[in-house]
Amino acid sequence: xxxxxxxxxxxxxxxxxxxxxxxxxxxxxxxxxxxxxxxxxxxxxxxxxxxxxxxxxxxxxxxxxxxxxxxxxxxxxxxxxxxxxxxxxxxxxxxxxxxxxxxxxxxxxxxxxxxxxxxxxxxxxxxxxxxxxxxxxxxxxxxxxxxxxxxxxxxxxxxxxxxxxxxxxxxxxxxxxxxxxxxxxxxxxxxxxxxxxxxxxxxxxxxxxxxxxxxxxxxxxxxxxxxxxxxxxxxxxxxxxxxxxxxxxxxxxxxxxxxxxxxxxxxxxxxxxxxxxxxxxxxxxxxxxxxx
Amino acid sequence: xxxxxxxxxxxxxxxxxxxxxxxxxxxxxxxxxxxxxxxxxxxxxxxxxxxxxxxxxxxxxxxxxxxxxxxxxxxxxxxxxxxxxxxxxxxxxxxxxxxxxxxxxxxxxxxxxxxxxxxxxxxxxxxxxxxxxxxxxxxxxxxxxxxxxxxxxxxxxxxxxxxxxxxxxxxxxxxxxxxxxxxxxxxxxxxxxxxxxxxxxxxxxxxxxxxxxxxxxxxxxxxxxxxxxxxxxxxxxxxxxxxxxxxxxxxxxx
Amino acid sequence: xxxxxxxxxxxxxxxxxxxxxxxxxxxxxxxxxxxxxxxxxxxxxxxxxxxxxxxxxxxxxxxxxxxxxxxxxxxxxxxxxxxxxxxxxxxxxxxxxxxxxxxxxxxxxxxxxxxxxxxxxxxxxxxxxxxxxxxxxxxxxxxxxxxxxxxxxxxxxxxxxxxxxxxxxxxxxxxxxxxxxxxxxxxxxxxxxxxxxxxxxxxxxxxxxxxxxxxxxxxxxxxxxxxxxxxxxxxxxxxxxxxxxxxxxxxxxxxxxxxxxxxxxxxxxxxxxxxxxxxxxxxxxxxxxxxxxxxxxxxxxxxxxxxxxxxxxxxxxxxxxxxxxxxxxxxxxxxxxxxxx
Lengths: 292, 254, 341
Description:
The complex is a heterotrimer.
Chain A: H1 3-34, H2 41-58, H3 63-86, H4 94-115, E1 130-133, E2 136-139, H5 140-162, H6 164-174, H7 176-181, H8 186-207, H9 218-233, H10 238-257, H11 264-278
Antiparallel strand pairs in A: 1-2
Helix pairs in contact in A: 1-5, 1-6, 1-8, 1-9, 1-10, 2-3, 2-4, 2-8, 2-9, 3-8, 5-6, 5-8, 6-8, 9-10, 9-11, 10-11
Chain B: E1 4-13, E2 16-26, E3 31-35, H1 42-49, E4 57-62, E5 65-66, H2 72-78, E6 80-82, H3 95-105, H4 111-116, H5 119-139, H6 154-167, E7 172-176, H7 184-199, E8 203-207, H8 211-217, E9 220-225, E10 228-233, H9 235-240, H10 242-249
Parallel strand pairs in B: 3-8, 3-9, 6-7, 7-8
Antiparallel strand pairs in B: 1-2, 1-4, 4-5, 9-10
Helix pairs in contact in B: 3-5, 3-6, 5-6
Chain C: H1 6-27, H2 30-56, H3 63-80, H4 85-107, H5 112-132, H6 134-137, E1 143-144, E2 152-154, E3 157-159, H7 163-186, H8 188-198, H9 200-205, H10 210-236, E4 238-239, H11 246-259, H12 264-280, H13 288-302, H14 306-322, H15 327-331, H16 335-338
Antiparallel strand pairs in C: 1-4, 2-3
Helix pairs in contact in C: 1-7, 2-7, 2-10, 2-11, 2-12, 3-4, 3-5, 3-10, 4-10, 7-8, 11-12, 11-13, 12-14
C-alpha cells in the first residue's frame, strides 16, 4: 500500500469513525439516563436518510435546510419512539429491548412497503466537488462529516458540562430518584435526551447517506456497530465512546484497504469480543459497583 | 479471637470516603449492633462483608480467613448470611420456595440427579421443605408456605427474609434493619427471636434504628458516623458517650 | 409457575401428539404435513430459547446462530466427509452446545446488557462466516442436496424418511424436549433459575452460583437448538445463510415473548401459530413482518405473559366453570390448554 493509499485509508477511517461516534453517542446518552438498549436506533437513521432524500430530490429543498428539517424530524421520531415503545416499561429491563426489536422490524418493513426496495441515491452538489490527492480522488461530500462531528462533539461537551440541561442529564443518569428529589423533572430530561439523540443521528444521516445508497435495511448494521462502540467505550461513557468509535472506524477502513471488505462486520465483532475479555468495562470505564 | 474481623477497612467511591478506617471485631455467640445516623455507611459495611462491594483498602477476615476477594455465593458457603435494608425477596416464588432455596442452593445433590428426580434429590427436597416449615414456624409465618411471597404484608416479608437467611445455616447472621416497618409489639417479638437465634449458636451482627430495643439485647454496640467508628463498647457506655449523643442530636463534643 | 398439574399437562401433550401424528399422515395434505414438521422443529427452537431468555432471564440474540451451526455442521459432515447422518446430527448438536458453552463462559459474568451485545456479535460472526466462507459453505447460495438420513431397519422392512416419518421424529423430539424442560422447571434447578430471574443479587446472596447456572442453561439451550438445526438440515435438504441471520434471531425473540416467557407450552403454541398462520394468510405476504414487529411491541406492553397468560386465563375460567368436575374434562379441551401447559 502506498503512502497515499495509507493516508486515504486513515482519512476514510476518520470519516467512518465520525459517523459511528455520532451514532454511538446518541445510544450512550439514552443508556446513561434510562439503562436501556434501543435496537431501533439505526431505523431512525434510515428514516432520516429517506426524509433527506425526499426533501432534496423530490421536494427540492436546499441541502442545509434539509439538514435542519431532518434534525427536527429525527428528534421528534425519537421522542415518539420513547412514548410508544419504552415509556410504559420504565423499570422493566428487558422490556424496551424487546419492543425496540419489534419497532425495528416494523419500521424496516414499513420503509420497504412505503419506499420500495430499490436503493435511492441522495444527490448533493458536494458529491460533484472532487478533491484529488496523488493518484486518488474523492468527493467533498465525504469530508463534510469530520468537521460536523468535531463541532457536534464540542457542542455536546459544552452542553453537558456548562448548561443546566446537561447537568440535569448527568444527574438523572447517575440517580433518577435523587435527581427528582432535587427538583429536576426526569420526564422532561428524558424527553430532551431522546431529542438530542435524534439530532445526533440526523447529522450523519444527512451528511453521510449521499455517499451510499439509501435502502430500508441500512440501519441494521449501524445499530449493531453503535452498540459495539458503546460496549467498548463503556456504557454511558462519552469519552470512551468517542475513542472506541474512532478505533472501530480506523480498523474497518484498514480491513477494507487490505481488500477484505466482506469480513468487516465479522472483524468488528471479533475486536469487540476480544475487548470484552480484556477490558470488559470499557476503554476508559471502571467497574461500576452498585451499593445496594 | 473475633469471628468476623475488620482491619482498617476503607471504601471510596471516587473521591468520596464512604467508610474510613473501620476497625472492629464481631465475637462469637454475641449480638453486636451497629448504630448510626442515616448515610453513615452501615449498609456499605454489610456490602463489603458479604462481597457485594470490594473494600478500597484494609482486610476483612472471617474465622481467620480473608474474605475480601471471595465471590458472594462462596462467602455464603463460608457461613455468612444476610438480610437487606430494601427487601430482596423472590416475590413471585412461594414463601416456602424462598426459604427452601437456602437449603437447596447449598445442597449436595448434583444437577443431573436433581433432573432425574432420583431418590436422593427427592429426599433433599423434602428435607429442605421440612426445614423451611420449621424456620417459618420459628419466625411466626406458619401456614403461609404456599403463598406468593410478594403478597405478604411488609412486616411478614421482613420475617421471611430472616427465615431465608437462616435456612443457609450461617454461623454469622447479618441483619440490616430487620425491625423497619414493624410496630412496637412486632419489634419486641423479633427481639425475642434474635435472642433465641443466638441461643442456637448463631452470631448476630445487626443494623438497627430502634435504639431502645438494641440497648436491651445487644452485647456490644458500634456507632458509625460519616463513615467513621466513633464509639465501640457495651450499651451502658454507649448511652452516655457524648460523641454518640452529638452525632445523633447535633451539637459539639466538649 | 405451575398453574396446571404436570401429570395432566404431559397427558394432554401426549394425546395431542398422537392426534397430530394421525392427522398429519392420514388426513392432511402434503403441504400441511410439511408445515407440521416445520412447526415441530421451531417448537424445540423456541422452547430452548425460552429456557435461557424466559426462564433464567438471560437475553441473547444469537439463537438462530446455534440453529445454523447445528444445521451446517451436520449437513457439511454428511456431504463432504460422508459420515453417517445420526453421527453428524449428534456432532452438529454438540458443536452448537460447545459454542454456547464457550460464549457463555466468556461473557456471562459480564452481565445483562454486555451479554446481549456479545451474543449479538456472535450471531453476526457466525452469519458472516456462513455467508463469506464460500469455499466451505457455498456462501449466499447455500447448500443444497443435503442427504436424507439412512433408512431405518424395522422388523424386516426398511423405513424411508418420508415427511410422515419426519413428523413422527419431530413430534418425539418436541415431546422429549418438553419433558426435559418441564423436569428442569419442577426440580430444584428450576427454582434456582427462577430465583436468578427474580432477583439476581439476592440469588447470589443465598449461595446460588448464578454464573454457573446461567452458563449451564445457555449450553443446554444451544445444544437443543443445534439438534433442531440438524433435523432441519436433513428435512429441508437446503440451507441458506439468510435463514440464520440476526433477523432470524430477532424473530425467535418475538416468538418466545409472544408465547410467554417461561412457559414451554406457550412456546409450542407460539411456534405453531407463527409457522402456520402466516402461511395461511399468504395474502398478508409483505405485511407478515410488520405484524410481527407490531405484535412484539403490543404483547410486551399489554400482555407480558403472552399466549401462556392468555391460556392460563382460559384455563382458570374453565376450571371455575366446571367447578367440582374432574380435571380430565378441562384437559381434553384442546388448544386452549396447550397454551397453558
